[in-house]
Amino acid sequence: MLDDRKLAVLRAIVEDYVSTNEPVGSKALAERHNLKVSPATIRNDMAALEEEGYITQPHTSAGRVPTDKGYRLFVDRLSQIKPLSSAERRAIETFLAGAVDLDDVVTRTVRLLAQLTRQVAVVQYPTLTRSTVRHVELVPLSDRRVMLVLITNTGRVEQRVIELPEAVEDTRIAHLRAVLNSCLDGCGLSSVPELVSDLPGRLPAEDRPVAATILSVLLETLVERHDEKIVFAGAANLAGADFSVGLRDVLEALEEQVVLMRLLGDTSPDTPSALTVRIGSENPYLRGTSVVATGYGSGDNQLARLGVLGPTRMDYPVTMGAVRAVARYVSQILAAS
Amino acid sequence: MLDDRKLAVLRAIVEDYVSTNEPVGSKALAERHNLKVSPATIRNDMAALEEEGYITQPHTSAGRVPTDKGYRLFVDRLSQIKPLSSAERRAIETFLAGAVDLDDVVTRTVRLLAQLTRQVAVVQYPTLTRSTVRHVELVPLSDRRVMLVLITNTGRVEQRVIELPEAVEDTRIAHLRAVLNSCLDGCGLSSVPELVSDLPGRLPAEDRPVAATILSVLLETLVERHDEKIVFAGAANLAGADFSVGLRDVLEALEEQVVLMRLLGDTSPDTPSALTVRIGSENPYLRGTSVVATGYGSGDNQLARLGVLGPTRMDYPVTMGAVRAVARYVSQILAAS
DNA sequence: ACTTGGCACTCGGGAACACAGAGTGCTAGG
DNA sequence: CCTAGCACTCTGTGTTCCCGAGTGCCAAGT
Q: Cα B37 from chain centroid?
């Protein structure tokens, strides 16, 4: 059905269209790529490709433009992920290495990715549920208020002010802290609920109301923060590009955590570091845009996802290369800290 | 020079232009506002206003449009800040009251403000230098690494992983923590550097290298975080509006902390809660936009600034009302926590 | 001295139109 | 199966034309 030359034509169309942003005609194709055949032949192939739904013409007598299906074929079979230049690699490395804490890592990553791809970059904060508890801290603020600080192995810190049902001395708080830590240290967050359920029994009766209050807040914190935080950068790169969907819609989506999360998609458990590419209408929440995403995290413990969002007409090989490279470097950085 | 009627004409022009987004002509003015004079008279006044530079016409034979100078006069003398409806007030209150921590307060505030004004909202995180230390925590991660956690009275938490020059037992870390806390608790952050300078003298000699490492990181944290964090929301509201400057420039500015900071401007020390309005060219960093900002914070202790950014053609009375109201509510919330 | 009606003038923007250019589909011949 | 040629179909652009909104100015009115 689709012989090698037709595929070559499709590849040429995608490449030309991506770089020029104009429908590409048979004559231009014959010139720019040495396909060794005449425009007329190419026209025949184009007709076939259009028949199959890989390309389309905006209007009669204009060049052809790839369809979503065309891009899909291109990504799956016609292109190779383009590795970054060594200069870019070095730049990434030094830029990410300068990060001082988790917030900083995420911020730098998202900016880096935006700048590298000239698209909108999206980075999800490392997931709480797959982290482990490193430390629980109770800081007395007054005799009836304490601040709960939860530190995870990824360097993430959660904090919450707790109003106590009764005045409590600092020493009792200190004791509670010791108990909590001995109980929770190193545990996966998802296992916390069951671990604390039998905790009150190990405390003197007088401490139980206070402990209950604190524990309920602790659990609440874990559950609430389960909807992860997501940041983006590079919105300015949207200014030039045109989407089939309005610019306003894209900007709105970017500010909706939930939509962003869905756009990034899920990491498939068996191949966590695989690149996900969603093209145009394949993308249920924001048609007219493409998303290139991947999981990142240290080793086989995938923590979260990152990726970029751009117009369907994007340079997939380069974008995929950048996303993959950044994901690797940030994983590396996270593993080291 | 400018009698009452001319001012009334200017006010009418601003109001009409803001609501219709079209140059306003003498006839329309005479009809819509009951100025009790004929279009011809209004034309004369308009000519005078144009002579003085308050209005201008996009091209010969179109209506008039306010200039930056015209908006300035309008804001200063012709308009009154419009208070929010009680429904809006309630909405603000309940929305902000649901915040669980400082991050949440800031996030909710910026979204609220964006939605309320239909502009881009910008909120600066409370300034570190004016906060006080609530607690310093050292969490051993391994025998050569500790995590430093700094908690301020505004609920802000700073964290940093520290590599130690030598292996250190947990008990020594605990001792260090106790010393640090006894020394720093309740101090203003700006006074920390001098307080810690004589600290090593109070420690056994063997602890000094470790202490020095930790202290240098602590100081570094304080200094680095001195450039404050800023967030924005409501970029989608830019989609409709048109600026004299390109949309791309605005989006780029929004992602540049430094520019944002400058846009928000400084709080004048004597009237911290005063509204700052910068109109168009008055605004040095992003001409073609207007910024309405104010300080916020509990009581006379101004912490930071918030505001909105929009096209010069904005509804100043309403915007100013919203900014002022939100600043008050968030100050209240912060004072309570 | 200010206001008002009248009038000529100026432009921007939309409609109608023609036209060049790019690109196509088709057919006949190599 | 490829190629050359040809007629056809569009879009985008430039031109022209005209309408209407709005102005500036002047002379008359209060």
A: 43
Beta-carbon neighbour count of residue A271 at 10 Å?
9
Cα separation of A135 and B140, whole Å?
Answer: 9
Residues in chain B, pLDDT under 70: 128-131, 153-155, 186, 188-190, 193, 195-196, 198-201, 223-227, 299-302, 337
- B20 CA to C29 C1' distance (Å): 67
DSSP structure string for A202-235: GS-GGGHHHHHHHHHHHHHHHHHTTS--EEEE-G
Amino acid at B253: A
CA distance B220 to B159: 12
Residue A281 sits at φ, ψ, to 5 deg, of -70, -15
Chain B CB contacts of A251 under 8 Å are: 235-236, 238-239
User: What are B331's strand-pairing partners?
Assistant: none
Q: Which residues of A touch B238 (CB under 8 A)?
A: 251
Q: Please give the radius of gyration of chain B, using alpha carbons only, rounded to the nearest integer.
A: 26
CA-wise closest residue to A330 among A129, A110, A81, A84:
A110
Q: Answer whether B160 sits within 8 Å of A247, measured CB to CB.
A: no
B336 touches chain A (CB under 8 A): no
d(CA A81, CA A319): 8
Paired strand residues for B233: B121
Q: Are strands A275-278 and B275-278 parallel, antiparallel or unpaired?
A: unpaired
Written as six digits, the tokens of B64 are: 């008039």
| Chain position carrying tokens 């009409």 | B16
The residue behind tokens 């420039």 is: B249
Alpha helices in B74-205 (DSSP H): 86-97, 102-117, 170-184, 192-197
Neighbour order of strands in the sheet with A145-152: A133-142, A145-152, A157-163
CB B245 within 8 A of CB B286: yes
Going from the C-alpha of A287 to that of each of A126, A190, A220, A280, A315, the distances in angstroms are 27, 34, 35, 5, 18
User: For residue range B111-151, what is the model confidence (pLDDT) as tens digits?
Assistant: 999 999 999 999 998 876 566 777 788 888 778 888 888 87
Order of strands across the sheet that contains B133-142:
B133-142, B145-152, B157-163
Burial label for A1, CB within 10 Å (0-12, 13-18, 19+), is: exposed
C-beta of residue B23 within 8 angstroms of C-beta of residue B64: yes
State both tokens at A228: 């992860």
pLDDT, tens only, B270-282: 777 789 999 999 9
Q: Are A289 and A262 in contact (CB under 8 A)?
A: no
Q: What is the pTM of this model?
A: 0.85
Alpha-helical runs (H) found in B225-279: 247-254, 257-264
Beta bridge partners of A138: A148
| Both tokens assigned to A36 | 């060794």
Reading the block at residue B229, the tokens are 């964090």
Which nucleotide is nearest to A40 if distance is taken from CA to C1'? D3
Least CB-CB distance to B251: which of A157, A161, A239?
A: A239
One-letter amino acid of A135: H
Dist. CA A217–CA A160, nearest whole Å? 8
User: What are the DSSP calls for A23-46, one per residue?
Assistant: -B-HHHHHHHS--SS-HHHHHHHH
Q: Are A119 and A308 in contact (CB under 8 A)?
A: yes
pLDDT tens per residue across span B284-324: 888 889 999 999 987 556 678 999 999 999 999 999 999 99
N- to C-terminal Cα distance for chain B?
Answer: 53
Show residues of chain A in contact with B134, CB under 8 Å.
Answer: 139, 141, 147
- In DSSP terms, B239 is beta-bridged to none
